[in-house]
Amino acid sequence: MSTTHPGPARVQRSEPRPSAVTAKHLARAKVTRQRRGSKLKLWAGLVCTLIVVIPVALARVLPLPGPDQQDLASRRLAPFTDGHLFGTDQLGRDLLSRVLHGGQVSLLVGLLAVVVSGVIGVVLGAAAGYFGGWIDTVVSRLLEAQLSLPLLMMLLLVVALFGPSIPVITFVIAIAQWPEVARLTRSLVLVEREKPYVAAARVLGLHRFAILLRHVLPNVVKQASLVVLLLLAQAVLLESALSYLGAGPQRPFATWGRIISDGQDYITTSWWMVTLPGLVIVALVVGVNLLGDGLRDRARRRKASTS
Amino acid sequence: MAPYLFKRLGQSVLTVFLTISTVFVLIRMAPGDPAAAYAGPLATTEDLAKIRASFGLDRSVVEQYLLFLKGILTGDLGTSYSFRSPALDVVLERLPFTITLAVAAILITTVVSVPLGVWMARRADTTRELGANVVTIAGQSMPDFWSGIMLLTVFAVLIPVLPASGFATWGGLVLPALTVAILQIALISRLVRSEMAKNLTAPYLTVARSRGVSERALVWRYAMTNSSIPVVTALGTRFASMLNGVVVVEVVFAWPGVGSLVVRALETRDYPLIQATVLVTAALAVTVQLLVDLAYPLLDPRVRLGKKVSA
Hints:
- The structure holds two protein chains of two kinds.
- Chain A is mainly α.
- Chain A has helices at residues 6-13, 23-28, 30-57, 95-131, 133-147, 151-162, 166-193, 196-203, 208-224, 227-244, 256-263, 272-306.
- The model of chain B has no long low-confidence stretch (mean pLDDT 85).
């Protein structure tokens, strides 16, 4: 038997005598199917993500017209005409170039938002889980309160208040997302806190912060980081919704939601102005979600096999 | 039961109060002058001052806040600047549309996602289940404004079978409700799947099966009942957040609900209208959450309200 299936093969190796379990049975086993499923998800996710991320990252290098370069003579050209892969918009701007340049802003906002919400969430969640008491009460109440807030309404309000700049939108999305990280971290820390090594560290006379920072957090961060990809997917969607409603970053380039809302007026005559930017968002978000899902499946299986 | 109810009621009132107070402060910090938005570009400074006085904006913020709180108790939330009628009336007029949309969407979601989730849990790790799994991931990856525009283009423009916007006939409800439901179906069916998968492998189910309980009863009566609390909680939370206005979808379909009202009120800095909308929707959302919590003992007799479940 091959060594590429360590799970089922290990069972076989421990029993070297002839077995009724054939390679065919192994290929059909539940574990093999699960492994195949998550591998498929990971690869499909990676491909979808890279198809979007690589061109977006290379937007400045690719031989494309500028995203704001108007050409009124070639307005609303269909895709694949005159070298415009995605066609042009109502002002004759190259749609692909607009999508890629706008994508840089969308991705940047998404990544920054995930980092900020991750830091806030891990810090507050860990503090609430480890110290308990009034810290836990305050954090848990905040989490609950945010659930019953009209979220998008509040986000629109804050953007109206401080203006649609990149830092404000990043911050707003981070505020929308931190509860998820905080709740997960809190529950993980609650479990970790009761383990013997924490008691041992306490007996050795380590400070509470030192135990939390050097011993508890490293054991939690790996599991908590699995939600990062799912958060990134949500952040990209949220940013596009805000910019669709006109509360997205305006500079330097219109982001995806805005490009779609611009194209909406021409949907009956120029389908590509809405459809193609939308498909780009879907490809990216599906890819990131698949990656996150596949990784989570794998982590769950690994945990199940060690326990 | 009674002390629990009072405690939860108190919490709900506090949540609504904090929400509305935050909004009150935030909109007054925002740049943009309601008087200027109201009067138009040709107004003189005196005109603006007069308008501001008539809106009560010449008073201090603290004074405005106290008046606003007094207004809540007497049911008078001020006059909307742009509609020139009581703000509460404007909101209540729009509210039935949002409720209709939310109810339709949550019905579609429940009817589709529960059977789908159960099916996925029973066929776990088959190729077909993997396919369904990927489809639900795709469903939660589409921006709702985009899927709305796509549905609209296909079913109202290319094949004109349904109205594109507004709510003149019941047909107008189909596309917005579907758009809202796509995302919810993806999320809820995945939740049903994971909850059911947990219960389908539980020892009590093996015991029941060995006693000869039919497969259908095992799935729907045994496993489903035990999965229902997280699922009902999620459905309730989703429903509550829809009542806060399905802002994006309402804008796409020009749906006359509170979501599109809020976007307009924010643009015109219509303070009383923003406050009234937030107050009404937040109160409604909190009520739904409370009702869901109160329904737990009906779903699971082991739950005693106000006490932590140990099982």
